[in-house]
Amino acid sequence: MTETHRNKWPQSVSIGEDDNQLAINLEISQDRFMSIAQEAHRRGVTLNKMVNIMLKGFLDHKEVKNLLDNDESQETKSKPELLNEDK
């Protein structure tokens, strides 16, 4: 690589500032990683983009949306509830 090309490379990268995204760590098996990487290759996207597509699909799933909506409605209740444990 020539010095001119090297100077054109970005000196730093900002993650998530423009897209309102959050960085997370995932632990997955080698087999699952390879499957995701192969699917990303088939689609012509990066591995990170493929993981984002998968997470968005999961979060957009009807059952997950219902769970998330229920959690939000629980947080917005105006009155606290007393929960008694039966012994």
Descriptors:
87 residues, mainly alpha, 4 helices
Coarse morphology: elongated
Biggest pleated sheet: none
Q: What is the tally of helical segments?
A: 4
Rg value: 21 Å
Gap from first CA to last CA: 72 Å
Low-confidence stretches: none
Order of helices and strands: HHHH
Helical percentage:
55-70%
Mean pLDDT: 76
SS class: mainly alpha
Strand composition percent: under 5%
> Based on DSSP secondary structure assignment, what is the total number of beta strands?
0
Quick structural overview:
The protein is mostly helical.
Describe what this molecule looks like in 3D.
This protein has 4 helices and no strands. By secondary structure, the chain is mostly helical. The protein has a domain at 48-73.
Set down the secondary structure blueprint.
Layout: H1 3-8, H2 30-43, H3 47-60, H4 62-75
Helix pairs in contact: 2-3
